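Slide 14.
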Amino acid sequence: MSNGLILHCGAARVDRDTLRTIPTPDPTSSWRPVPHADVADLITGHALALGYQIENEQYGLNPTGTKLFGVLRFHPEGHPEHSRALGFRNSHDKTFALGLTVGLRVMVCDNLCFGGEQTLHRRHTSRIEIEALIPAAFAMLPARFLDLESKVERLKEHFLEEDEEKLLVVRAAERGGIPSGDILAVLKEFYAPRHEEFQPPNAWNLYNAFTETAKKYSPERADLCYRTLGSVFGLVQQAA
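Slide 15: predicted structure.
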């Protein structure tokens, strides 16, 4: 899965300072929008306070400034082959709730595709408490990241028996994760990977054969692929 921000529907990349220039609509009795800058500042501030090493931060705004999309990537010590990622989005026009998603790979797209291995949403009601929501989200991050990394290690240790990889690829196609026409493309990538580190014939490298193939997909199609793969390879957890 792309471990970052995908903007292809009119949104533009911005820095965190730009978010402070975006006005926040006045609240009503039942709706309280959260300033974009507050979301970004609280998330990055809390990450740094907890000792997370922010490897990269990305932000995007739609043309009217009513929708924020963001991704933070953290460097996990001892795991150079992947990043821990936290995606988030916020709206000032009631389009979607304040959301946070975590995983080793996440997707945050301005076409509203949004997901990782676990996702939290909170509506912008008059009772929303972002100062409590973000610490609560971070409180579950260490255990969730460790759980994911443990599952990845098990996938690496699971060397596939003959034809087992074919069954997994067909299963992913049956569940709609990839078009049936890409079954051979995934298998070809698995048998002859373009990246040397993905050569051992284990389940983790089959997963990466899927994600390499999915790079050609539209964000909507890739989102469906990644969500299906999470289920097929046992990486997903039910949303809160």
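Speaker note: The chain has two domains: 4-150, 158-232.
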